[in-house]
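Progress report, Aim 2. The chain analyzed during this reporting quarter is listed below.
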Amino acid sequence: MRLKSLVLAILAVLAATLASAPPAAAQIEVDVNRGDVQPLPVAIPAFGGARGAEIAQVITANLERSGLFRPVDQAAFIEKSLDVNVQPRFPDWKAINTQALVNGQVTVEGGRLTVNFRLWDVYAEQQLLGLQFTSTPENWRRVAHKISDAVYERLTGEKGYFDTRIVFVSESGGRLNRVKRLGIMDQDGANPSYLTDGSYIVMTPRFSSTSQEITYMALRPEGSSIYLFNLETARRESLGSFPGMVYAPRFSPDGGRVAFSVERNGNSDIYVMNLRNRAAAKLTSDPSIETSPSFSPDGTRIVYNSDRGGSPQLYVMGADGSGARRISFGSGRYTTPVWSPVGDFIAFTKQVGGQFHIGVMKPDGSDERLLTTSYLDEGPTWAPNGRVLMFSRETPGGAPRLWTVDITGRILRPGPYPGSASDPAWSPLLN
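Predicted structure tokens for the chain:
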């Protein structure tokens, strides 16, 4: 399904939200800022009706994968049949140490799928959330992701990140003849597809703020180019030719500009292009390597890496190239910086002592923390709520795979794509 029709369907979903009773004050919550947070026991029985079991499975997998929730084994359930319009038998759920309960009902009438669900605080014996979503039947997975986001936000106080997509570079073949295709999938690995055919190498794809466009670098025998790819029309457009190698494109938060690097005669500088008139401006002019630009969420600053000080370090400058200042001062090499969508941290790749790390620091360079350590970790990308990072990890002699880690570094897990892949980029929440 093309993105346009999908968006229209979800707009209908939002318009159908129930005017439910105001939720009572939450007695349970997940403190996502605690490094030693214990997963919250949550029961998610199969919803009633067609697709009910599958929708419950997707919600269960989403919440479990976040590391903040522990789904209760369905075999332990005492109350087997729940009516979405009737209060659960709370003592039955307390007896199996459930703290939150999600139940729902699915109906399909007139070619429309409607899902009612409730979120209950078992120990307070209160309803925390009651919503209805309506969509076309084929969008049942997106409805499940929307419900997951609603439950996550109600219990953590932060936006969810489940109704999102990942664009990445799918890799196959040997090291000397590696085929790299542009891939895209739901954040949980469902619905994978490929946007290029592998006849040329693609690198560093990035979503626009609307999730409608992707920018990426294509490396062909005749040289490198940066492209825009429209997901709705499948139209590909070059940003033009430059005297040198162009790479590492990133959209501005408003989608109106793309920053990238141009390498010529061993020196690379950062440029920014206005997508309305295709005018490009050069932002750096040092006789060194400046690359990997990433805009701040308000679009006023850019973080990038430069070796002007003798080794790759992180710098921040104004979006017009003014006021550049170094923010990383640790040992090792800092590369691939990316600003958190909520603005509080900058993620990066760090190489030191023969190991690679994914780390974060505040935009002023303080509070540096390394979240991972391995033979080769690189290329972090943020979930839209700034809580989770995806990156690629490679083991000695192995192929790169996608992994995720949360901002505390405690929840480290293999990513959802089963094949070899690198350069992931997380979309904003879909509309």
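The first strand starts at residue 40 and ends at 43. The chain has four helices and 29 strands. These observations will guide the mutagenesis work planned for the next reporting period.
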